[in-house]
Design goal:
mainly alpha, Single alpha-helices involved in coiled-coils or other helix-helix interfaces, 2 domains, 4 helices, about 90% helix, rod-shaped, transmembrane helix, MCUR1 regulator, CCDC90-like
Length: about 190
């Protein structure tokens, strides 16, 4: 074991400052023992380069295994989420098409009903004043029918809007779930790297 100071020079220095030779040698001997003990304690906590490289190789192989597992997990999870999102998009497009078809059908029916009622009213007006009273009665029925038709249209449109909003909310929930899943996986990766 190497000492990084000259023990003889220290003995001489102590003797020059009033210590006897025996006292100086005892002090230097005590210092050497203290330093040896401290160095031994330090060496116990140290690792050799070979041990450090072995530990590093073990950690790197473990990280490599975790990377492979995460890549496999990522591919399977993301592909499942993508397929689920595609299914939801297709369902939404079908529902939207059905809603638009229903709206178009209701509008066409209403236009047809209105045109029929208008033609009836015109025929009744052409017959004269007597028929005018009858036409007023028909107008009242027509107004009731139109009001009922308008109410039906409004309720159907409101139902369709409600259905669309609920599907939008479901899509947002699935999207939020996908984002939180991705964030969870990313945080897991981040945590493993640190």
């Amino acid at each position: 074991r190497r000492l990084y100071f000259d023990t003889h020079a220290l003995v001489c220095l102590l003797e020059a400052n009033g210590f006897t030779t025996q006292q100086s040698e005892v002090i230097v001997s005590a210092l050497v023992k203290i330093m040896s003990t401290n160095v031994d304690m330090i060496y116990k906590d140290m690792v050799t380069k070979v041990q450090q490289e072995i530990a590093l190789q073990q950690v790197m192989s473990h990280i490599g295994g975790v990377k492979k597992d995460m890549i496999i997990l990522e591919k399977s999870e993301f592909s499942a989420l993508r397929s689920e999102n595609e299914k939801i998009k297709l369902e939404l497009q079908q529902i939207k098409k059905q809603v638009m078809d229903e709206i178009t059908k209701v509008r066409a029916d209403n236009k047809l009903n209105l045109n029929l009622e208008k033609s009836r009213v015109k025929e009744l007006v052409s017959f004269g004043y007597f028929l005018l009273e009858t036409s007023q009665h028909c107008h009242a029925q027509q107004d009731r029918a139109l009001t009922q038709t308008d109410r039906k249209i409004d309720t159907e449109v409101a139902d369709l809007k409600t259905m669309l909003e609920s599907h939008k909310l479901d899509n947002i929930k699935y999207l939020a779930g996908s984002v939180f899943t991705c964030l969870t996986v990313a945080l897991g990766f981040y945590r493993l790297w640190i």
